[in-house]
Amino acid sequence: SNGENDSQQYSFAASARIKIDSLTNIYFSPNFSRTEGFNFSNSKSSTLKNDLLLNESESFTSSKTENNNFSPNLYFSRKFKKKGRVWSANINTTISESKRENTNNSQTIFYQTADPNDIRNQVSKTKNQTNRYRFTTAYSEPLSDSSNVTVNLTYENKLTRNLRDVNDFDLSNGQYSDYNDALSNTMSQKNSQFKPEISYELNKKKINFWASANLDITDMNVNSFFNSQRYNFQNSFALPGYSLNLQYQFSENKSLSIYNSADFSIPSAEQLTPFTDNMNPLITYKGNPDLKNRW
Fold first, then answer.
1. What would the pLDDT profile of 120-166 be if each residue is shown by its tens digit?
2. pLDDT at 138
3. Cα distance between residue 70 and residue 33, in whole Å
4. What is the DSSP secondary structure assignment for residue 266, as one 8-state letter?
5. What is the mean pLDDT of residues 44-73?
């Protein structure tokens, strides 16, 4: 295979601090980034099994990409007269969009199966949008001069929209205007998450200990349209997590550290949606609506 690629990147970042009084501060930090890219490649490949030729593939692809990301962050911190007592709040937003236009001229020949050869001359246009809003508040209370407990609450709302339109080359008009329903799709996903967490910290001369426990409560709603079929589903999750960290200092040069953590992660909408994606002629993807949480 061979090819070339070119990319350009632009970014802007700023930060400001507003000091209300000696104990209260507000921080604001907006960030913006933009990337543009173009690449093309020629490739040839073949697949063999036990010296038997299974398939051959030859392709020319080119793509143009554009990515924009805006993420303002607002942070509030309030200290109290009692040492170690702190209240904070944070609002973080991410608004992003990525676009990609891909031209694919390829042929894949199958030798050992009855599957028809895969010949493509098409243009695909994808657009992925993400709007994420997160609010976090935390309160820390000292229990002694060497220990404290912190309660943390997080709420996040995340909306993603994914669109892929594929058009095949139409010989009658010489344009990419023949809509390919089998490879085109749309999907939107909305996740609402609430996460309470409590943590404890102890700092002594020879021993440092930190532990936390949380519960991730998520409501997922997915709407998708693929190959003239619509698939919608809703699911709710309540997933626990914890982490423990212990460090003991025997001497200036000797110490022992023990760390253990566990949490759950929920499957993505693409992993749960039971549609078959044949965008790659050699690899087929299919979601599983019965997929379980990962520990």
1. 899 999 999 999 999 999 999 999 999 999 999 999 999 999 999 99
2. 97
3. 7
4. P
5. 91
Instruction: Quote the CA–CA distance of 76 and 90 in Å, as a whole number.
Output: 6
Q: Are 139 and 86 in contact (CB under 8 A)?
A: yes
Count Cβ atoms below 10 Å from residue 5 Cβ, excluding itself: 11
Please count the CA atoms within 13 angstroms of the CA of 259 that sit on its side-chain side. Answer: 1
CB 262 within 8 A of CB 295: yes
Residue found by looking up tokens 């997160």 in the block: 134
Q: What is the pLDDT of residues 244-276, one digit of tens each?
A: 999 999 988 899 999 999 887 788 878 888 888
Q: What is the DSSP secondary structure assignment for residue 112, as one 8-state letter?
A: S
Q: Which is nearest to 180 in space by CA: 224, 127, 228, 223?
A: 228
Gyration radius (Cα) of the chain, Å: 26
Element (H, E) at 272: helix 269-272
Both structure tokens of 185: 């799709």
pTM: 0.82
**C-alpha span between 15 and 72 (Å, rounded):** 10
The Cα-based distances of 29 to 22, 69, 87, 98, 152 in angstroms read 21, 14, 20, 23, 22
- State the average pLDDT over residues 42-48: 88
The reported pLDDT for the residue numbered 295 is: 64
Q: How confident is the model at residue 23 (pLDDT cuts 50, 70, 90)?
A: very high
C-alpha to C-alpha distance for 281 and 107, rounded to whole angstroms: 9
| Burial zone of 222 (CB within 10 Å; 0-12 exposed, 13-18 middle, 19+ buried) | buried
Given a cut of 80, whether residue 282 has pLDDT beyond it is: no
| b/e code 71-100 from CB counts within 10 Å (16+ = b) | bebebbbbbeeeeeebebbbebebebebbb
